[in-house]
Amino acid sequence: MPNRDLRRPAEARPQPLTGLAGFLDVPLTGGPSDPEATLTGVTHDSRAVRPGDLYAGLQGEHVHGAAFATQAAEAGAAALLTDPAGAALAAGSGLPALVVADPRGRLGEIAAWVYGRPAEHLTMYGVTGTNGKTTTAYLLDGGLRAGGGVTGMIGTVETRIGEEVVPSVRTTPEATDVQALLASMLERGVTDAVMEVSSHALALGRVDGTVYDVALFTNLSQDHLDFHPSMEDYFLTKADLFTPRRSRLGVIDVDDAYGRRLAKLASVPVLTVSATGDQDADWRAENVELGPDGSRFTVVGPDCHKAEARVRLAGPFNVSNALLAIVALTAGGVSLDDAVEGVGRTPGVPGRMERVDVGQPFEAVVDFAHTPDAVETLLRALRPVTSGALTIVLGAGGDRDRAKRPLMASAAARFADAVVLTSDNPRSEDPNTILDEMLAGIRAADAAPGAVLVEPDRVAAIALAVDRAAPGDTVVIAGKGHEQGQEFANGVKHPFDDRVELRAALARTMHAGPASPKQSTDARIVAPAPSTHTPTSETPNPGVPATGTSRAEETNQ
Ligand SMILES: CC(=O)N[C@H]1[C@@H](OP(=O)(O)OP(=O)(O)OC[C@H]2O[C@@H](n3ccc(=O)[nH]c3=O)[C@H](O)[C@@H]2O)O[C@H](CO)[C@@H](O)[C@@H]1O[C@H](C)C(=O)N[C@@H](C)C(=O)N[C@H](CCC(=O)O)C(=O)O
Ligand SMILES: Nc1ncnc2c1ncn2[C@@H]1O[C@H](COP(=O)(O)OP(=O)(O)OP(=O)(O)O)[C@@H](O)[C@H]1O
Ligand SMILES: N[C@H](CCC[C@H](N)C(=O)O)C(=O)O
Ligand SMILES: [Mg+2]
């Protein structure tokens, strides 16, 4: 274990506070101004303040961070950055203040300034898109290592500096943490940094102060409509990554309709990729051979570039992710041979198409699909490798996009033979309300009688799917992938790992034989009622048909 907190650089590079005031062109107000005062770090969280930090008191959805200025001062903050409302709130803190109209909008450049603009000394890769960011980031990492790079990674599953891992809280951290992490990476000899760039990050200034050498776009489909007012806003937020203030070059998957739009809209040079052969693109995957453990394909690019490639993750969509990574690597200076070699060596990504095998006579897989498009893509990928029935266990997260719930359930009913609806992370919501909203998306025509079951307890739902599986079937547990907990109301998080639960359920069936009657009778078996088809207002992905939203009936058979 590392003996220091890698989230910050060890070496303090004190910057004069008056220098920051000059940089921002605002006076220092409020507390006593020491002309010699210096800053050694910056944070937006009073609970993370270290002596010498600039504390950014930001207006949040719930509270104004400036309300914690006294706590920040007690922890040793050297100064406060805030807005006029925050300055009033922090009046009693005694901290000298820099007051600007939009502190969140300035935080990225300030953090980059405080930490010595680390991104300028690293080769930066930024991956955006609704699905495939984490997977593509791991593949990029593999290719960079094969090219001799020392890598750092910031993303959903983990944050890594060389070989050392720091747990990730979110996909893209706040700007203060991004810049501190990049400075820490630089200090520890990292040459190339790979980051997942969420739309929240772009909208909330988390990656301000970072210009990516190569920006990647995987695809766009419905998600996060709790945060974005429309798909158009979601798209334009992502598209901003492909402008000169944020990147130097774009690599875009044009098999995706939004990707094709982006390739035209981008104001940085762009390389296009297509793994399906359906689109005109600079780089293509040809001779694709899909297998249960991964795929082989030929990479074909401009100027007679050609190489035989493989990806050790099943499904055609992972050929897209791999091709995108390979092309981005070559754009970033890695040779095509090293890129292909490193991507092909990458063993897998935790909780993405991860097979769990205790010797059972059917396939059991854990995957992170938690959008309508990902559920459809996943099931379409598993169908050709399933000789028997395909069963999915699926829930939807609480306090997230509600509109995607019926669409996820609809995709599950249309592309699987059996569906066990269950809880994901209910967070502050009632799990049964989420399940009802999912059920509303399933039309009678999409599911055979008895094919849809509801079991709110995720452990029991996994056991139910396993108990019903026959030789040749595939059971996929979707939506939580690598996650290590299940979140309930009031921030309560119970330890939970789909892979552990699936393994335990499989082991039980192997030893005890099929179905424990209790699990089967407790679940509700749902017969979706014939219903009027109500198209949804958004048709986010031109490839996904609209689905009904009527209420399903329960028969409790
Ligand atoms: C919508 C959103 O992103 N909200 C983020 C936002 O929360 P907020 O505005 O509600 O903050 P708040 O709780 O009102 O607090 C205001 C300020 O006071 C500070 N504070 C608060 C309490 C305290 O004791 N001390 C203190 O300093 C907070 O640090 C914050 O700066 O600022 C907080 C502090 O930075 C974030 O934790 C919070 O992310 C929440 C937890 C979140 O879940 N965000 C998710 C949806 C998210 O960002 N997801 C994306 C996309 C995922 C993907 O598709 O891959 C991601 O990048 O992970
Ligand atoms: N290129 C792709 N196209 C469609 N679906 C994909 C693609 N790549 C991955 N998926 C699906 O999306 C799921 C999530 O993949 P991954 O974790 O790589 O995406 P992500 O963009 O990082 O997601 P998140 O934003 O939640 O972190 C996978 O488990 C798989 O089901
Ligand atoms: N990055 C995504 C992950 C969702 C994973 C799923 N298990 C859920 O909780 O909805 C989010 O925060 O929206
Ligand atoms: Mg991710």
From TrEMBL:
Pathway: Cell wall biogenesis; peptidoglycan biosynthesis
Keywords, sorted A to Z: ATP-binding, Cell cycle, Cell division, Cell shape, Cell wall biogenesis/degradation, Cytoplasm, Ligase, Magnesium, Nucleotide-binding, Peptidoglycan synthesis
Entry's Gene Ontology molecular function annotations: ATP binding; magnesium ion binding; UDP-N-acetylmuramoylalanyl-D-glutamate-2,6-diaminopimelate ligase activity
Role according to the record: Catalyzes the addition of meso-diaminopimelic acid to the nucleotide precursor UDP-N-acetylmuramoyl-L-alanyl-D-glutamate (UMAG) in the biosynthesis of bacterial cell-wall peptidoglycan.
Source superkingdom: Bacteria
Known EC number: 6.3.2.13
Binding-site list for ATP: 129-135
Name used for this protein in its record: UDP-N-acetylmuramoyl-L-alanyl-D-glutamate--2,6-diaminopimelate ligase
Family (UniProt): Belongs to the MurCDEF family. MurE subfamily.
SUPFAM superfamilies tied to this protein: MurD-like peptide ligases, catalytic domain (SSF53623), MurD-like peptide ligases, peptide-binding domain (SSF53244), MurE/MurF N-terminal domain (SSF63418)
A GO BP entry: regulation of cell shape
One Pfam family, short name: Mur_ligase_M
